[in-house]
Structure formats: C-alpha cells, structure tokens
Q: What sequence folds into this?
C-alpha cells in the first residue's frame, strides 16, 4: 500500500485530533469582519480558496495583522505538533501518555518559534518591498516559496527527531535534498487539494448568489469562504502534515520495513 493511501488511513484513525483544527475557525469572524469593522482595520486579511491571505502594505494595519497572525500560529503550532506525534505514535508505538504530558508543549513551542521566525522574516521585508516595487515583492515571495520547500519538514524533525530548532532546520533541508521527489509530491498534492478547495468555494459562492439567501451573502461571499477554510483546516492541513510525517519517518529502515510488510 502506498504512502498516500496509508496517510488516508492515518487521517481516519486520528480523525478526532484532526477535528481539533476546527477550533481555529474561531478566527474566521475576525478575518471576515476585521475587528468588527474598526476603521483602521478594514482590509489586510482575507480568506480565499481555503487560505488566509495577508496584504503586505505599510500602514497602521501592519502591527495588528502581525499580532493576529502570531496568535493564530500559536494555536496552530500546538495542533501541528499533536498530529505529528499521533502519526509517530502509530508507527513507532511511542508511550502516548508520557509524551502527551511531557513533550507536546515543548514540541509546540519549538514549532511556534519556527513559524514566528518565518512570519517575521517574510512579513517585514514584504512590507518594505511593497512600498518600493510590486515586481520586487513578487520576486521575493517566489524566492520565499522555493526556500520554504527545504524547511517544510521542520515540524516533523522537531517531533520525530526531538532536536532543537536549529538542528531541525538542518535536518529538514537535508531530508529534502536527499528526497526531492518526496518533497515535490507533497507540494503538488497540497497545490492540487487547495485548487480543489478553491473550486468548491467558487461553486458554493455561485449557488449562494443564485439561491434563496443570495441577497444576504452576495456582497461578502461568506458561504464559500467559511466552508472552504473549514475544509482546509479539518482535512487539507492535517492530511498534509500526516503525509509529511509518514514520509519523514520512512527514513528509518525499521519503520520503512514495517510499512512495506503491511
């Protein structure tokens, strides 16, 4: 059985943990109705195709947006650590109760530190470049995307290898260099899933516009936005993290032989 199929099995067996990602939907009202229409925060964060988009603009919005993103990432990091640990538990028979009590919070803070650093390193230069040249901003974001591929296994390195953040960065980059096909598989699958979510959002928006409640939601396209972000949080994000964890654990021969036997 291939890794993608087994990842679906892992998703189903850990569905209760995946459902915890739905707690992040508490941020949706803030994203859709920014700070309940406080004038200085009318724009800056939007939802589209199941993703959270940030406008990189030098304005009074910048600091509130950055703080809001950090708060979101704090809770997001805990859930990412939890789902990675769940896969590790299933494949290596970790003593769950010990790790849930002693290690999850440590993993989560390291993962949050990683996301916070990435946010700062992207957000601040992007703000500056947006005021200089749109072309420079686009080039910078493309560069960030390419570089980020080398570090997309950092949460897995933190949870599975139990290393420091610095070592996790090196381990992730090393894993991608040794397994470029795996990295590309993850990227393409993630892109395909997000495109599918975008299509679902578009269909729902069109249905809402032509349906009974069209007049109530047409101006904000709330129906498609909320459902698409729910699908992304409850399925796309945990499934991709499960898949990444599965791939990462296959670097251990014992786990690889165990998976092949099954």
A:
């Amino acid at each position: 059985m291939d890794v993608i199929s087994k990842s679906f099995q892992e998703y189903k067996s850990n569905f209760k943990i995946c459902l915890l990602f739905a707690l992040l939907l508490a941020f949706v009202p803030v994203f859709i109705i920014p700070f309940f229409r406080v004038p200085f925060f009318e724009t800056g964060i939007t939802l589209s195709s199941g993703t959270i988009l940030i406008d990189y603009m030098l304005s009074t919005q910048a600091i509130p947006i950055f703080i809001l993103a950090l708060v979101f990432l704090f809770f997001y990091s805990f859930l990412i650590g939890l789902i990675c640990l769940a896969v590790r538990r299933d494949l290596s028979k970790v003593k769950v109760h010990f790790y849930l009590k002693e290690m999850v919070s440590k993993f989560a803070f390291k993962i949050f530190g990683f996301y916070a650093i990435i946010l700062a390193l992207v957000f601040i230069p992007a703000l500056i470049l947006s005021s200089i040249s749109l072309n420079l901003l686009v080039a910078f974001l493309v560069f960030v995307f390419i570089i980020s591929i080398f570090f997309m296994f950092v949460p897995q390195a933190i949870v599975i290898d139990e290393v420091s953040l610095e070592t996790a960065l090196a381990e992730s980059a090393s894993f991608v260099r040794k397994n470029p096909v795996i990295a590309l598989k993850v990227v393409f699958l993630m892109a395909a899933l997000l495109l599918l979510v975008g299509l679902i959002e578009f269909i729902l928006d069109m249905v809402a516009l032509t349906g009974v409640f069209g007049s109530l939601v047409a101006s904000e396209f709330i129906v498609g936005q909320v459902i698409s972000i729910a699908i992304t949080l409850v399925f796309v994000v945990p499934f991709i993290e499960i898949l990444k964890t599965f791939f990462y654990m296959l670097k251990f021969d014992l786990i690889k032989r165990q998976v092949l036997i099954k």
Residues 3-261 form one domain. Confidence is low (pLDDT under 50) at residues 34-43. The longest helix spans residues 62-92. The chain has one domain: 3-261.
